[in-house]
Amino acid sequence: MANLSRPATAARAAVNAAAMLTRELEQRMVAPAVEAVTGDGRKQRWDQHKQRRRSELIEGTITAVQELGYRAGMDEIARHIGVSKTVLYRYFADRNELADAVTDVFLAETVLPALTESLTEELDDYELVHTVIRVCVGVVADNTAVYRFCASQDSAKRGAATHRILASTIESTLAGRLADRSAETDGAGVWALAMVGSADRVLEWWISDQSLAPELLADRLTMLIWGGVAGIVMADGSPERFTADPPQIPPILRPVDSGQTDPGQGVRQP
User: Fold this and answer.
1) pLDDT one-digit tens code per residue, 154-208
2) How far apart are CA 218 and CA 153, in angstroms?
3) SS3 of 171, please?
4) Res 120 pLDDT > 50
5) pTM (2 decimals)?
6) Distance between start and end Cα atoms, the chain
7) I want to staple 176 with a disulfide (CB 3.0 to 4.6 A). Which of 6, 86, 160, 161 is the partner?
8) Residue 152 burial (CB < 10 Å; 0-12/13-18/19+)?
């Protein structure tokens, strides 16, 4: 039988997803300030100045949010940076656009480097999934104010990088293990997205509650996601086979009451 573990494939898929997202983020960060390149040297120098200034304002915003909290408004952020609010509005139409720009930088400079540094081909499938979840939770735990500043806006970008990398890792793991068993692989993408979506909702709850240590949260999310992976693989990726013979939860064996006549038997409860 073929090797059922394909850690290298899953790791490469996750790293490739990170690389692709890095390129996308770089383009988004440069595009707002740098227009079409022309032969006018003065225009190019002005565009470069605008890009540098915009980057400085974004970095200043991140520092302000870390110190003032995620609810900081444009007035507070501008004062903390040491500029007028008019300057901020010259580069960002409103707080939503500023949060979008912060999201791009946070993903490119904090989230993606932490993920790609941790993903190696030596990790087996379980370790790979656990590592991605642990790193994502850890990054949010260490940068809660910035994450909440990004999350407080109605932005489709929020979480896009971590979603895509985690989903890519799970999908590659599922597809590889199922293919090795000559099983159905068609549902790998759907299952991966469902698992990542549930993890994201848990993370949204946790940043407001934080009653669990981040390490324990990561472990519990891994239990849920890896349990799903294992159950799908055991059914060979077949909904019909899964429905016909779903994984069983072991029954609870309880001791009999002292008043029962047959002490040799327990009471099983599903």
Assistant:
1) 554 555 656 777 788 788 888 888 888 899 999 999 998 888 888 888 988 998 8
2) 25
3) helix
4) yes
5) 0.72
6) 35
7) 6
8) middle
Distance CA 111, CA 132 (A): 11
Output the six-digit token pair for 115.
């993920």
Tokens, residue 87: 């300057």
**Radius of gyration, CA atoms only, the chain:** 24
- Whether 33 contacts 54, CB under 8 Å: yes
Query: What residues contact residue 179 under an 8 Å CB cut-off, 6+ apart?
Result: 185
Which residue type, as a one-letter code, is found at position 120?
T
Burial 166-201 (b: 16+ CB within 10 A, else e): bbbbbbbbbbbbbbeeebbbebbeebbbebbeebbe
Q: How many CB atoms lie within 10 A of CB 154?
A: 9
Cα–Cα distances in angstroms (integers) from residue 248 to residues 146, 166, 191, 230, 264, in the given order: 42, 28, 20, 13, 25
What pLDDT sits at residue 266? 46
Domains (ranges, CATH) in the chain?
7-240 (1.10.357.10)
Tokens read off for 261: 């006549």
Other beta carbons less than 10 A from residue 229's beta carbon? 22
- At what angle are helices 41-68 and 144-151 packed, to 10 degrees? 110
- Token pair belonging to 181: 């068993």
Work out whether the CA dihedral 48, 53, 58, 62 comes out positive or negative: positive
Provide the token pair at 184: 């159905």
Contact 26, 51 (CB under 8 A): no
- Render pLDDT for 19-65 as a digit per residue (tens, 0 to 9): 665 555 555 555 554 444 444 566 666 677 788 899 999 999 999 99
